[in-house]
Amino acid sequence: MGTEKALNLDGNSVLVTGGSRGLGRGIVKELGEQGANVLFCSRSEKHLLATSDELKAFFRPPQRLVAQVCDISQEKEVAQLFKRLTAEFDTLHAVINNAGVQEPIGLFDQVDWLAWRRTIEVNLLGAALVCRHAIPLFKARNCGKIVNLSGGGAATPRAYFSAYAASKAAVVRLTDTLAEELHDFHIDVNAVAPGPLNTRLLDEVIAAGAEKAGLQNYEHALRQRADGGYPIDDAARLCVYLVSSASDGITGKLISAQWDPWSKLQQHRELLQSSDVYTLRRIVPKDRGYDW
Alpha-carbon distance 111 to 105, whole Å? Predict the structure, then answer.
């Protein structure tokens, strides 16, 4: 699914975390094609520089593409990232929190605890750190956009991927909580479920094998690799749509790139603002027709 028309992001400055590979790379490319200036970061300098060289062709002067090494789970590095951002750009219009890790894969009581904690530090605390630095800049402008990447396990249980699922569910709750806090500042905060993408995360599932990942997950991963998965470009377009003015007023939602009619959401803006559509909520007996 794609947008019905091009999005004009001319002059907008966007920060993308985890932008050197996979979906992050696709997001940076799409932002460039839509006219934005981009600062993107990655823990790997090698991947960062390679991606920067590859994507320069999609940025036309006076657009700017800036790359910065950063581990978003480290407070000092995030502070340096924002120091670089304020030096390079006059202002910040949007943040896309894409950086994430998936391992360890396996039964909760058997996986490495330090690796489990590391996933929480990157996926949840890292995203939160970036938001804490960005929000004061948005408040000063009385507007802004935050897009947080969700993932498999956020809305339904995902056995053998407990750290990833728990962190992504927490990211969704952080997202709609921040949306409530920041509503009066005209700051829209949304989460994106990108769909089954063929990225390094899929490679990790296949490498883990059926014993660690579970037979069903492993076989599904093999089918997905063979089928090609959901297009990265389409998931990237949803993220870019949510940082554009076309989505103004849509906030506090978990939106699926694969299943939701996101290119037309602005037509339902008023209804979305007053409903719990595209949110995670507790189900009680009466919601399923029970009288107890």
Answer: 7
Domains of the chain by range and CATH? 13-195+231-277 (3.40.50.720), 198-229 (no CATH)
Q: What SS3 class is residue 167?
A: helix
| pTM, rounded to two decimals | 0.96
Q: For residue 163, count CB atoms less than 10 angstroms from its CB and return exposed for 0-12, middle for 13-18, buried for 19 or more.
A: buried
**Residue in 105, 116, 101, 31 with CA at minimum distance from that of residue 66:** 31
Output phi, psi for 84, to 5 deg: -65, -40
Q: For residue 164, indicate whether it is catalytic.
A: yes
Whole-angstrom Cα distance, residue 43 to residue 185?
A: 32
Compute the distance between CA of residue 246 and CA of residue 238 in angstroms, rounded to an integer: 11
Residues written for the chain: 292
With bands split at pLDDT 50, 70 and 90, how would you rate the model's confidence at 2?
A: very low
**Of these residues, 164, 218, 241, 278, which one is catalytic?**
164
Q: Is 216 exposed, middle or buried (0-12, 13-18, 19+ CB in 10 A)?
A: exposed
Q: Which residues contact 234 (CB under 8 A, 6 or more apart)?
A: 1, 2, 195, 257, 258
pLDDT tens digits, 37-89: 999 999 999 999 999 999 999 999 999 999 999 999 999 999 999 999 999 99
Q: Is 34 left (phi over 0), alpha (psi -120 to 50) or beta?
A: alpha
**Helix, coil or strand: residue 49:** helix
List all residues 6 or more positions away from 260 whose beta carbon is below 8 Å from its beta carbon: 278
Contact 234, 262 (CB under 8 A): no
